[in-house]
Write a structure and sequence with these properties.
Helix content is 42%, strand content 16%. By secondary structure, the protein is an alpha+beta fold.
């Protein structure tokens, strides 16, 4: 048995050693340089301001196709290409109408693309390519619906590149030379962000999972072998310590024992990154993801051990008639800096989500004063009661972060409502009273928090609340894991050299 363990560790480690080294070092890069993406603040800053003169929303809604008005879920008013546009979103499509009934929406032209590009980068445009397939920086499947995409190259020192949808004129991606360089040594190798893999999401997921499993085998077998050698040395010499005399072997043995559990944790969590917790481990009512549509929409009855996905609409409730809202033009008067207004709701509370050039906030649209939104406990109880009919629950307000309501990367809003549902899935919700946004968890998702984010990037409350200690822990773990991998690779290289010399002799 021991003989086979040694062989497994030697050969699997030889295969995955370089990958382990790459994952540890690229993981450190990812801490500070994520994959480039369009920053929400950049989008806000470049929105066109709304005009002083705006029409009544019901006068615009009258121009919708017959029967469409009754299906509208949300309405958005914004400014684009010098036109004020209303987006009426239904389940199946979005109708975009001009505020001025005498106008038609201008098509996206080459000049439109150039105008948008000039708003983003104050530099000459070197060239514009038309993309009909995804490249390294637009790999996700959501970009397929936007094809063709204009890729603008700029003649500036930073090497900016901007991706614009030719269909809508919206900015999809924004990179510069620095962000691309960091991605090549960080996110791309760490997450296998390669176009050839991302074209097929299933292939990409299987690749990541397989890599994690192989790495887990190497790390687990290595730790067991290390403990065996430690035990053998104790029996032979009567003391605890590494039996190896050669520097690299001893270093690999000692650091492997020291960081073995860390590497096992990294490998296991990496393998589980895109996988659900198996039902035979934690049985739940399907995925049990509660989307915004279900939270804000009508109730969905529970069905034992079936897929139960709750959208934001179901949490928030059925869409409200326009008459329930204070005239949106009052928002423009109170907040002249507004650049976008969205008709939203949470159950029977009408809401205006407002975006300015520097911030986003929600207003209670049920009163002419348009105060900042503050959902009452009773409103949240109504939403949860509609989702979990016949199930008891408790609601409380929290003013500090909890283990399942904390993020290393994002400052989650406080105070928040915490809702605990008394059901087999241990469902819980965290609702932001200032926006209606929420997080929901069940047994499987709470377990996933530990087996992925907890193990993989130490998203643990005790560490997250102590940033210096978190930084020390992640650097120590990654550098320690990198050295274990590097020493293992070097030992295997030396072994191969010896075998080659013997063959020549």
């Amino acid at each position: 048995m021991n003989k086979w363990l040694f062989r497994i560790h030697r050969w699997v480690g030889a295969v995955v050693g370089l990958f382990f080294l790459m994952w540890c070092l690229s993981g450190l890069v990812l801490v500070y340089h994520p994959f480039p993406n369009v920053d929400e603040r950049d989008l806000q800053a470049r929105m066109e301001p709304l005009p002083d003169s705006l029409p009544a929303v019901d006068s615009v809604a009258k121009r919708l196709p017959e029967g469409a008005a009754a299906k509208v879920r949300t309405v958005t008013v914004r400014r684009f290409q010098g036109q004020t546009l209303f987006d009426f979103e239904t389940k199946d499509t979005t109708y975009t109408l001009c505020a001025d009934s005498a106008e038609v929406r201008r098509p996206v032209t080459a000049e439109t693309i150039r105008d948008v590009a000039r708003r983003w980068v104050d530099a000459p445009i070197a060239r514009i390519d038309t993309l009909h397939s995804r490249d390294q920086w637009i790999m996700y499947s959501r970009y397929l619906d936007e094809m063709p995409i204009a890729k603008c190259y700029f003649d500036d020192a930073a090497g900016h590149e901007l991706y614009i949808s030719i269909r809508t004129g919206e900015v999809l991606q924004f990179t510069d030379r620095s962000s691309r360089l960091w991605a090549y040594v960080g996110a791309i190798p760490h997450k296998f962000y390669l176009p050839i893999l991302r074209r097929d999401n299933d292939v990409w997921i299987r690749s990541l999972t397989t890599g994690g499993v192989v790495a887990l085998i190497a790390a687990l077998s290595g730790l067991i072998v290390g403990l065996i050698m430690l035990r053998r040395n104790q029996k032979a010499r009567g003391k605890l310590g590494s039996p190896y005399k050669k520097a690299w072997l001893k270093a690999h043995h000692v650091t492997g024992l020291t960081f073995g559990l860390v590497l096992i944790g990294f490998a296991f969590s990496g393998a589980m990154a895109l996988q659900r917790i198996p039902e035979w481990i934690i049985r739940t009512h399907g995925d049990y993801r509660v989307s915004d549509a279900k939270m804000r929409g009508k109730s969905l009855p529970l069905s034992a051990y079936t897929d139960y996905r709750v959208s934001d609409a179901k949490m928030r409730g059925k869409s409200l008639p326009l008459s329930a809202y204070t005239d949106y033009r009052a928002v423009r008067q109170l907040h002249p800096e507004a650049r976008q207004i969205v008709w939203n709701h949470f159950r029977d509370v009408p809401i205006y989500d407002v975006t300015t050039d520097t911030a986003s906030f929600s207003l209670d649209a049920s009163t002419p004063d348009l105060p900042p939104l503050q959902l009452s406990p009773a409103t949240v109880e109504k939403a949860i009661g509609a989702l979990h009919k016949g199930e008891s629950f408790t609601i409380s307000q929290i003013d500090r972060y909890e283990e399942y309501y904390i993020s290393r990367w994002t400052a989650l809003p406080l105070p928040a409502y915490k809702v605990m549902v008394d059901n087999a899935d241990r469902s819980r919700y965290y609702v932001d009273p200032a926006t209606g946004n929420f997080r929901n968890l069940n047994r499987a998702r709470m377990a996933k928090k530990w087996v992925f984010s907890g193990l993989h990037y130490f998203n643990i409350r005790w560490l997250v609340e102590r940033p210096t200690l978190w930084t020390i822990a992640i650097w120590t773990a990654c550098l320690g894991g990198a050295f274990v991998s590097l020493s293992g690779v070097w030992i295997n290289l030396k072994r191969l050299r010896r075998k080659r010399k013997k063959r020549r002799a």
